[in-house]
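User: quick one, fold this
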Amino acid sequence: MALEDAMRSMRDFDFGSLDFDNIGSWPTPIKALTWVLLLVAVLLGGYYYHIEGLQVQLASIETKEVALKKDFEEKAFQAANLEAYRQQMVEMEESFGALVSQLPSDTEVPGLLEDITNKGLLNGLDIASIDLQKEQAREFYVELPIAIAASGSYHDLGAFISGMAGLPRIVTLHDFQISSNKDDANDLTMKIIAKTYRYKDEDS
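Assistant:
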């Protein structure tokens, strides 16, 4: 009965006569409905201004979680293979040391020039000149170009080039220039740049 009376009174009530300055005089059903609407409005407002912000924060944290898991997996793999990496590092250091040992020091350059001269003479070449060029500093090493001018037959020149590759020090060959003698086609003149290297120390 009370519910029916309340519904009847709401149907018969003139909402246009509501006085917002005197809410306490409103009928009880109207006040209850107003409070319910306010509660719903507060809940919706709380959702959009608080819960929605938390959801955005949660999505950001979940994204970071995925990245952290991937980073953890990579580091776990590295940690599991740490001993293998250390062994590889030792092998690389040994290989690097072996390569560095092949790089001549300043005091070994005259010996290198002598080796080049001997290679030419042993292969029947006429060495016209062997000139040291200006050193060129690179990031980890210093490059020393050597200009070589020699003459001989095709086979002699080929044997000389092969002999250069067999030197105990690292020597690379660049900028080949070969020309023939007009009077003797078998007499060739070769100009070439041989580059040797030394380790770049702190003073270089």
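User: anything notable?
Assistant: The longest strand covers residues 141-152.
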